[in-house]
Amino acid sequence: MISIEFLLTSLVVVLIPGTGVLYTVATGLFVSKRASLFAAFGCTLGIIPALLASSFGLAAIFHASALAFQIVKYIGVVYLLYLAWVMWKSSSPLSIQENNDEATAFSIAAKGFLINILNPKLSIFFLAFLPQFIMPSAQQPIVSMLVLGGVFMLMTFAVFVVYGLMANRFSQFVVDSEKLSLTIQKFFAGSFAALGVKLALSDRV
Q1: Residue 98: how many CB atoms within 10 A of its CB?
Q2: What Cα–Cα distance (Å) separates residue 148 from each residue in 6, 41, 52, 71, 145?
Q3: From the first residue on, what is the mean pLDDT of each consecutive set of 10 residues in the chain (205 residues)?
């Protein structure tokens, strides 16, 4: 069921920088190593709705209904632009309050979760991607979809954790330089804004 082709293709897809990677890297740079793990976890959890939607055919609604796709898409656009605005305005983006670690960890994970569930193209991606690796003779294709999706999620979490930890190794150097910190902050803000615009201009696949 789990082929080398699927693992290699999934790895390439996961490695490509997107909103989840940017969010996890930013968290690793400007918050902490622990926070980057919650960011990676939240982004990974955000895959679950898309996986379930694809497995049970709900993603076809986005593909068939322009209105449904547009509604979810523009909610996602607004959220990405909101994140861009927050990063642009804040001198210490995503900073953790030391006296409320648990609540802040939840909020960090929740932001990562929202980043993925508000992208309707993720559901359509799974609908087009996963079936290619399911054997025609599979007696329970839905189970196969869920298993492959689970493997994809594990790979996503592992890769995002690596991204976050690598970013955190440079955090002290970045934080010590106010100019560099602000420059990188603006870069991430601009990147989120650009991804929001890209999503706004995207069509159903």
Answers
A1: 7
A2: 8, 18, 12, 28, 5
A3: 83 83 88 91 91 71 62 72 73 43 79 84 72 71 84 94 90 66 72 75 62
Closest CA to 112 of 79, 86, 89: 79
Contacts of 37 (CB under 8 A, 6+ apart): 161, 164
Query: Phi and psi of 17, rounded to 5°?
Result: -60, 130
Q: How many whole angstroms separate alpha carbon 157 and alpha carbon 111?
A: 15
Cβ 90 vs Cβ 185: under 8 Å: yes
Distance CA 107, CA 17 (A): 22
Nearest residue to 28 via CA among 175, 192, 191, 183: 175
